[in-house]
C-alpha cells in the first residue's frame, strides 16, 4: 500500500488499465473458446437489426403527434401546455413561478432560453444560467433550485418522452435536481417513434455523442411502498412540457 | 444471503412465506398488478409476438458473437474516456471495486439498483474496508435498513408493509414518521439528497451496453440512477458480460420490450445512455468512470445448447409475475439473488452446483407461463426439465424416488405383476377408504394427502372390463338391437331430405 500512495493517480490508473487489458485477452479467449472459435471475429452481418420493418415507416401527422404525446405524458403524471411562441412560454413560466412561490431558477445556457427573458419577467427570482461561471458549484446550485428550465432536444410521441443531451451549456443536473422541471419543446422537434431519435445517434457516430443522453417520460415516481404511487422520489415531482408552435 | 430467511430448502423457505399472510397477499397483488400492466401494454402496442421474436433474434445474435461485441464495447468505452475492467469471478470484481474505493479514499458509495452487486455481496465487502454503501432506490433502501435482500426483481420491498417501513425509517430519522406513503418517501428524498451530494463514488448496474458507441444504458423510474451517475466524482458501473447489444437502433427494440414487460409502462420515466465520464468543459457528470464487466459463471452457459439462451435475459421480471409458484411463495423462498422461474434456472446455472440448488428446479409446475411471458422467448420451462434431468444423471437424484420409479416401471411392464398389485391394492384399501376416498396421510400418501384426496381403486379395473367392452363393441356393430336399428334408419331417412347441412 505504501508504494501505491507514492504513485500519482495517473500512474495508478495506467497500471489498472494495463492489468485490465491483459485480463481482457484471457476473458475474451475463454468466450471465443466456448463459442467454438480461436479468436473473436466480426459477425458476417446483423440480419435482425432494430425494430421490425413494419414499424420503420410508421409516422403520425404533427397534430396527432402533439395529441398523443400530451396524452401519454399526462397519463404518466406530467403536465403539457401548448403556447404559440416564446413570449407566451415565458409568461407561463412566470405565472407558475408566482403560483408556486419559486425563488430560485436555474436554466440551461441556450439562446432560446435566454430569449425567454425570465430575469425581467420574474424580478423577485434569482435566475442562474448553467455553467456561465465554471468556478461555481453548479450541482449544489441546481439541487437548491425550485425550477429547472431546459430546452428539449427531441421528443417522441409514441412513448410520451423528451430527450435531453448534455454539454458544457446543458447540465444533466438541470433536468434532475430542481423540484420542478419546465421543459420547452419546439413542435418541430417532436417525432413519432423512439427510433427516430435513437437511430441518428448511431449515424452520427460515437465521437459526436454527449456524455449523457436522457429520455424523460414524466415526473420521478416509485411504487415501492405497498404499490402506492409516489411522485418526486428523487427527480422532479412536477414536470411541465411547454409545446411551442 | 436470503435475508432473515435462512432455512435450508425451498420447501422450508416457502413454509415461512406461506405463513406470512401479508407477504402472500402483497406478492399476489403486486404480481397481478404488474402482470395486468404488461398484458395491457403489450396488447395496446400490438404485434407483440413479432417484437418478441425481434428481441430474441437480437439477443441470440449478440450472444453468438459476444467475444467480438465485448471487444468492440471495450474499445469504444475506452475511447469515450472510461476505464474498462474484466472479472472472471465475483471475488475479482469485488477486488477491483475495493481497489478503486481505497484509491479514492471513499467514505460513502451511493448505489442505484444493480442485481449484479447483489450477486457479489458488494455492500458487505465495501463495509469490511470501512466504506458505507447506500442503496438509493426507495425499495432497496428500505430492505437495506431492514438488513434483508430483494424479494422481487422490480419491486424489491414487496414483502414489507407501510407500518414496517415507517418503523424502519423512523429509526433512521430519529423521530416518529407517520405510515403515510408521501411522508415516508419525502423523508427518503431529503435524506438521500444529502447522501448523493456528499458521496465519493456513485455505483450503477447496467441494463444494456451499446457495443458500437461504448455507452451504458439505464432504465429507472425514480431518478436515483441519474443522481448516482451525475453527482459523485467517480462512477463505477458493474455489468454482467451478457448485457451487450450492438447499437442504439437495437435499443429501440429493447426499450419497447423491457418497460412494457416489467411494469406495463411505455417507457420508464428515465432512460439514460451514458458515454464515458463528463467531457472536459461539462459542469456535471463524473470525472472518472470505471466499467467492470463480470463473468461469474455466465460463460458456463455459452456453447451449451440447453442453457445458452439464458444469457438472452433482459431482467424484466415478467416470468416472476406470471409464475403460479412465485406468486404463492414470493422471492425469498428461492434462496438466491434471482428469484422466480429465471432464478430457478439461473442460480444453479451460474453456480454450476446442480446438487445444492436442485430443489429449486422442482419448485415449478412446468406450466410454461414463464415462457409465454418472456419478452425474448427464453424456454425456461424446458430448462427446468433439463436441470432435473442433469441432477438425476449426475447422481443427485433421490435414491428412493429412483428405486420407486424402477419398481413402478417393472410392475407396469408386466401385465401379470400389474394385475397382482392391483388385486392387493383393492384388498388393502378396504382398511383405509371411506366413501370412495382415501384421506389417510401416512407412508407414501403423506405428502399427497396433506392437500388432496386420493381416490380409491375402482372395483373393476379397465383392464378387467376390457374383455366385456371389446366384445360388446364387436358384437354391437354386427348385431344391433332391433329397436335401435329402426331408430337409426329413421334418422338416416330424415337427414337425406335436408341436404346434409343440419348440425342438430
TrEMBL record, chain A:
Gene3D superfamilies: NagB/RpiA/CoA transferase-like. This is L-lactate dehydrogenase complex protein LldG. PANTHER family: LACTATE UTILIZATION PROTEIN C. Transmembrane segments: none annotated. Residues 66-244 form the LUD domain. It comes from Paenibacillus methanolicus. InterPro entries: FTHF_cligase-like_sf, LUD_dom, NagB/RpiA_transferase-like.
Automatic annotation (TrEMBL), chain B:
Residues 303-334 form the 4Fe-4S ferredoxin-type domain. One of its GO terms (biological process) is lactate metabolic process. The keyword DNA-binding does not apply. PANTHER family: LACTATE UTILIZATION PROTEIN B. It comes from Paenibacillus methanolicus. It comes from the Bacteria. One of its GO terms (molecular function) is metal ion binding. SUPFAM superfamilies: alpha-helical ferredoxin, NagB/RpiA/CoA transferase-like. This is L-lactate dehydrogenase complex protein LldF. InterPro entries: 4Fe4S_Fe-S-bd, 4Fe4S_Fe_S_CS, FTHF_cligase-like_sf, Helical_ferredxn, LUD_dom, LutB/LldF, NagB/RpiA_transferase-like. Keywords: 4Fe-4S, Electron transport, Iron, Iron-sulfur, Metal-binding, Repeat, Transport.
